[in-house]
Write a structure and sequence with these properties.
By secondary structure, the chain is mainly alpha-helical. The chain contains twelve helices and no strands.
């Protein structure tokens, strides 16, 4: 890289102070979303809590939507990391599949419903088809695919298309992981049992003798 190119890259790279300010804005916005609610929180509220002007917030994020997407991305990143820890963890492929179904169900309630004020944000992400949601779906599909491939290599799963199997299993989780559908459930206490039964249903479909 030339000296000129290096200088340009350094000029464009965010400073440590700028990164710290962005992180503080995201942290503060998430805290306000969890207390005031996503829709009721304005950029002015975030700025006030940080003792800065709204104009200064807009230096780092062009809109409230950009802040919201950063919060959603961080939440989904945490869920993806947990999913991959299960997929790459110890245990047989069937046991890891059961664990992944259980994790996705538990995390949906813990992240979005134990703190219900975040529900509107998650619902907006889904209904408005934010790009981060598509990327998140792809990551969870990949975690399922990893388990399927391990099971096929061990001879406990049928030699079917692993990509399609992963998509089908992830789709089977919708009833207990989609925030809007879960909201409609009469009793969320039924969801852990639903997730366990669905995992067993998928495992039967993956048996090599079927």
């Amino acid at each position: 890289m030339s000296v000129h190119a290096q200088a340009q890259a350094q000029a464009q790279a965010p400073t440590a102070a700028a990164q710290a300010t962005r992180a503080a804005i995201i942290d503060t916005a998430e805290r306000l979303y969890r207390t005031l609610g996503y829709q009721k929180t304005a950029v002015a509220d975030i700025a006030r809590a940080l003792r800065m002007s709204p104009a200064n917030v807009y230096r780092f994020f062009p809109s409230k939507a950009a802040i919201t997407q950063a919060i959603a991305a961080r939440i989904l990143d945490g869920l993806e990391a947990a999913a991959w820890a299960v997929a790459r963890g110890p245990g047989s492929a069937p046991d890891r599949l059961r664990a992944l179904f259980r994790l996705l169900q538990e995390q949906t309630l813990a992240l979005f419903f134990d703190q219900r004020r975040m529900h509107d944000m998650v619902a907006a992400a889904l209904t408005e088809h934010w790009g981060i949601v598509a990327a998140h779906i792809g990551e969870i599909d990949a975690a399922f695919r990893h388990i399927v491939a391990d099971g096929q290599a061990a001879g406990v799963f049928a030699a079917i298309d692993a990509d399609e199997a992963a998509r089908m299993m992830h789709g089977a989780c919708v009833l207990f992981t989609h925030p809007i559908l879960v909201q409609e459930c009469q009793d969320t206490k039924d969801l852990p049992q639903m997730a366990a039964r669905m995992a067993e249903f998928c495992l039967r479909a993956l048996r090599p003798d079927c």
